[in-house]
Design a protein that fits this description.
Blueprint (H helix, E strand, L loop, with lengths): L8 E5 L6 E6 L6 H8 L5 E6 H6 L1 H8 L4 E7 L8 H13 L7 E6 L1 H13 L5 E6 L2 H7 L4 E6 L2 E8 L4 E5 L8 H18 L1 H17 L2 H20 L14 H10 L9 H18 L5 H13 L16 H8 L10 E6 L5 E7 L1 H11 L3
Length: 375
């Protein structure tokens, strides 16, 4: 990283020959080409983004495209609905049309949808082209840009089609969050809180004590929260890259959350991913309480904090409803953590004490969701 950047924070994702750095700081996107050239000298670059991000950050994107090794910029419609075969095909064909070689670099410039799509396309073309993540949302900076999960959605469930494919670099420019829509900022914060709830109770306490305000307002707490979140995820990914063990803990709240997203047909006006995660984490804690794993006092503490920052915590918060329990159960059974038809959930014994609960009885889940649909 350029010596002019005094406040850069760096987190390593240790995966042997596929290890890479996550660089975190304000304004670092200005040095994107320099950093890419350091690890991929002579490589041509191609940007994939969405229409909203292109409009908001057109000056930065044009600066990158003015480089002598630039290729082009492919822009797709924003939103979860773009995680589809059609948009994946458009990106793949653009990469091939631009004669990108395996040693070249595709830049995912956007939120989680762009990162997932671009990474999946990069994994497929010529059996693997290098790619860089430049995440532009809080959610993508602390979660989806790290760890190599790429993919698209199926009508039967979220992220059911994809591959594990690691980037060669992640540049998390926290200044890009200054103009982020408040709703998107809150949604991203749900993934920040998640790390505290998984196994970092002291991190949750720090957030709860007021650090969350600095994250939202652009204080130094923002860079620190991104760093801690990325370190937490990098450590788990290094131990379990392809989610055969404790990487599943990163899905706290996601089994319920993904089912809710599917139930509204990924309609962002009704529910976005981080909101689904917030409701999902609340449900996971209340379900844990129902099963006798955690006290109601701890559950209320978690729910209260999520509500304090403006996140939804109940299914009834979703405008227009989510259909029947049967609809949600069908989606849950498509979850990637289901093993031979047996339901697995990430539950908790307290703040920072999450665990993988295997073989949860179908009737218990159905009964619980019936209760939740009526509050």
């Amino acid at each position: 990283m350029s010596k002019s950047l005094k406040t850069i924070k760096s987190v390593s994702v240790a995966l042997g020959e596929r290890s890479y750095e996550i660089q975190i700081g304000r304004g670092i996107v200005e040095y994107a080409l320099q950093e890419i050239a350091n690890i991929a000298p002579g490589a041509r670059t191609m940007i994939v983004t969405d229409h909203n991000v292109f409009e908001k950050y057109s000056t930065i994107i044009e600066t990158i495209l003015n480089d002598k090794n630039k290729v082009s910029c492919t822009s797709i419609p924003p939103g979860e609905a773009s995680k589809s075969w059609a948009q994946l095909g458009e990106i793949v064909e653009a990469v091939i049309e631009n004669k990108m070689e395996r040693g070249d670099v595709i830049i995912a410039f956007g939120g989680g949808v762009i990162g997932d799509l671009t990474g999946f396309a990069a994994s497929m073309v010529r059996r693997g082209i290098r790619f860089v993540q430049i995440p532009t949302t809080l959610l993508s900076q602390v979660d989806s840009s790290v760890g190599g999960k790429t993919g698209i959605n199926s009508p039967q469930g979220k992220n059911l089609i994809g591959a594990f494919y690691q980037p060669i670099l992640v540049l998390a420019d926290t200044a890009l969050l200054d103009t982020l829509d408040p709703r998107e900022m809150r949604a991203g914060y749900a993934e920040v809180v998640k790390y505290g709830l998984i196994d970092k109770p002291e991190f949750f306490e720090w957030l709860e004590a007021g650090a969350w305000r600095g994250i939202f307002n652009g204080g130094p707490e923002r860079e620190e929260a991104v760093r801690i979140s990325c370190e937490a995820k990098a450590a788990i990914v290094a131990r379990d890259e392809t989610e055969t063990g404790d990487r599943a803990l990163l899905n706290l709240g996601h089994t319920f959350g993904h089912a809710l997203e599917q139930a509204v047909n990924y309609n962002a006006k009704r529910l976005i991913h981080g909101e689904g995660v917030a409701i999902g984490m609340s449900l996971a804690h209340r379900f844990s309480c129902k099963l006798g794993y955690v006290s109601n006092l701890e559950v209320n503490r978690v729910v209260q904090h999520l509500e304090d920052v403006g996140l939804p915590t109940k299914i009834s918060c979703i405008k227009g409803g989510v259909g029947t329990v049967n609809t949600l159960m069908q989606a849950i059974y498509q979850d990637k953590k289901v093993t031979r038809g047996s339901l697995n959930f990430i539950l908790t014994r307290g703040i920072g004490k999450s665990f993988v609960a295997r073989g949860i009885d179908n009737d218990l889940v159905t009964e619980f969701l019936n209760e939740e649909l009526n509050i």
